[in-house]
Every structure is written in C-alpha cells, then in structure tokens.
Design goal:
The structure is a homodimer. By secondary structure, chain A is α/β, with parallel strands linked by helices. In chain A, 37% of the residues lie in helices and 19% in strands. Chain A has helices at 17-31, 46-57, 74-81, 99-109, 150-153, 155-160, 179-189, 206-220; strands spanning 6-8, 34-40, 63-69, 86-90, 116-120, 137-143, 163-167, 194-197. An 8-stranded parallel β-sheet of chain A has the order 1-4-3-5-2-6-7-8, with helices on both faces. In chain A, strand 7 (163-167), helix 7 and strand 8 (194-197) form a beta-alpha-beta unit. In chain A, helix 2 crosses helix 8 (206-220). The mean pLDDT of chain A is 93. The interface between A and B is medium-sized, with 32 and 32 residues.
C-alpha cells in the first residue's frame, strides 16, 4: 500500500479566525493557488467525486488534495494511488479546520505550483460550516441517500457554500428524494447557490461540474 | 401540521460533564426510565428507525423521543404525527448534547411515566461521541450508503456505542459495502458491540432489534 504524508495539526492559538482566514485567502491569491473547502456529511462521496474529476481536469489545471480526518489515512491513500498529489491531515479529534490549521496543512503540503488545492474537510454538516478556512470557494456535497431535508436541518452549511453537488443520483429510483423541495430549501437560504447533480459512480454530470470548476479556478487565480 | 414543543437549550455551565452524566444516570435509574442516546451521521435513518420500532414496542414498553437538532422541528413532527410522545430540542448551533443539556430536555419533556426515552442526538459522527449524555445505553446507526469505512474514520463513535444498527440493508445491491471489513473494524475497537442489520424502509431485521431493545430496557430499569 502507498505511503502518504500524515500531518498532525495543532489547535490554533489565534483569536480572530475570520481575520486570519482573510490573510490566508490573500496569500493564496498572490501565489495563484485556488483553495476549495469541500464539506459534507460522512459518506456522501467527497473522495470519490474528486477521483472522478481527475480525468476531467487532466491537461486543464494542476491540482492536489489535503485530506482532513479525525483518524486514518484511507482517503489520502486512494488519491495518491490514483496519482493525485495529496497529504493527510489529522485534527486530533476536532471536527473542523480553521484558517490556522489549513495554513499548517498547506505548509506541509508545500505545493506552490498547483492551480487548485481541495481541502477535504471532516465529514460533518455542523462544525466545518462555522469556520472560515481561508478558502476562496466553499463547496458542499449532499448525497441522495442522506435525504432532501438536510438544508432544512443544517442551514448554515447551505448558507456558507457557493457550490452544492448532489451526488449518487444513480440511486434516485431507490430513495424518496424530492429534488424540488430540496432546491426550494437551499435557494431560500442561499439564492446564489450553484447546484450540480452528479453520480460519482457512473460519471453522470461530472463533466459539467468539472467545466464549471475549471472556469472558477481560472477566475480565482486571475 | 401538528405542533410540537420546542425547547431552546442553554449551554452548560458545569465543568465536570462526566460526573454530571453519572448523577443523571443514577437519577433516571431511580425513576425507572431508560435513556438511550441515539447517534449517527446525517440521514442514516434515526427517525425512520424509531418510527419502525413503534409497532414492535406496542404493548410491551412505553416510550418517547427527545429530538435534538440545530434547527427545524421536522423529525419531532413526524414522530408526534405517528403518535409517539416527543419534544424538539434546539442546540443553538452546537453539534452535540451533554448531560446538562439532556437534563434540560428531560425536565421540559416531563414524562416520568415512560420506560424508555430516546435522545435522538445531532446527526454527526464526531462531537456527540465525545460527550456522555447520562444515557444508560449508547446506540449508533450506520447506513449502507455511507460506506463500510466509517468505523475506521470515526473510531470514537464505535468505541463509545453499545449497540450498532446497520440500516438501509435493502440498498446493499446498489452499494459497494463490505460487511466483513466493517465488522472487523468495529470489533477491533469494541469487541462487545452488538450489531443489528435492518431496513427501516422494508422492516427487515426490525423485530430482532426491537426484541433486544425491550430486554435491554427491562434490565436497565431493574
């Protein structure tokens, strides 16, 4: 099995995370690296979606992934085995990353040459939404089996996200998922949300998502 | 639509949650009420499982539900409409409940006559596992679509739980879920875990789970 670099993050001592996040965002802009904070509940398919984007990104943008987890390195290994530059960040039990922790990860990753870095946040719909990581773009994934009521139950996640991916649409025939009800709840909280429907398993909808992300990354690094 | 009682919980001021949790556990024992702390990620089917247990519990034990959520009261309404005594607890953004918050909920619920109260915790695999709520039993649900790797990624949840329910087994043909790999990871962390496989949609496995819970509740209240 491949070895991945594992970074044990230290808890931040900075008091003003919002200010620190803005500083980090400006630094990254200066370096021409677009950081996307990828959030979702556990098992919605964050890593699988990234793996599926790989072929679509090939030859268009250079990219890598910082995988954050409480424990384990299974996701970073999956990405590394697929040839995607990645490191594993361990939060030591904490259920989110803030800007200082993200900076610790970026320093260890040490890849100033990439157009795009995904921060795959802890699988959690609550805490990650509360902390600005310094990312230019917040992206959230909801998978069909989780249910269409998540925007009602975890409103902050859908307020802070810029892009929403609805994953596992191949399972729509199996689950009672009301797309209109979900969209209504999302747009009520966030009229500017950009929503994509994909299956990271079959690849449906992934090219459209990739095209949009490539454009956003270019804008982000201008 | 039915109206449910909504309680806005206050953040605890007590310093020693573990001690407070033990006091609450003893109080509940004295009252003959078994408290089960039900935890899982978002959308694994906590409320649907409870609704499916209803017919199985009928005539055997009296029970109710305290629904904890960041926001909304959709779950408590579903339970109340089904005739299950329930109240809605709002955590004001916090991603877990501790013993003091649980006590606030129990006081507002004010049902000393029930054999069993479920505390349906916030949908989250991280924070809820870190706080003893004073419950006699910790129960966790993992749904098949979330993936078999959750015990590896969120180990504490599977260390603190006494009972694990694997839900949505009707979707096993659709997802790549390795039951043996999952069980290995669980038993490694918790050799005493009691695991049940159910479909809260079709009802498969629910009678066995209900029988076990009825016995545990009786033991709990002896």
């Amino acid at each position: 099995m491949e070895q991945v670099k594992i970074i044990e993050l230290k808890e931040s001592i900075l008091e003003d995370n919002d200010k620190d996040a803005q500083v980090l965002r400006d630094e990254l802009k200066g370096k021409g690296t677009c950081l996307i904070n990828l959030m979702s509940g556990p098992g919605s398919g964050k890593t699988t979606t990234l793996l599926k984007l790989k072929d679509q990104f090939a030859g268009r943008i250079s990219w890598g992934v910082m995988e954050a987890d409480i424990d384990s390195d299974v996701d970073a290994i999956r990405l590394k085995e697929a040839g995607v530059p990645s490191i594993q960040l361990h939060t030591g039990g904490m259920c989110h990353l803030d800007a200082d922790m993200t900076r610790q990860g970026l320093r260890s990753f040490d890849r100033d040459d990439l157009d795009l870095i995904f921060l795959e946040n802890i699988g959690n719909l609550v805490c990650p939404a509360e902390f600005d990581t310094g990312a230019a773009i917040n992206m959230t994934i909801l998978s069909v089996p989780e249910g269409d009521d998540k925007p009602v139950k975890y409103p902050l996640m859908y307020e802070v996200a810029d892009i929403m991916v609805v994953n596992k649409i191949d399972t729509l025939p199996v689950f009672d998922f009301d797309r209109e009800r979900m969209e209504r709840a999302v747009y009520e909280r966030n009229p500017d949300m950009k929503i994509f429907y994909i299956s990271a398993l079959t690849g449906e909808g992934v090219p459209e998502l990739a095209d949009y992300l490539v454009e956003r990354v270019k804008e982000c690094n201008q």
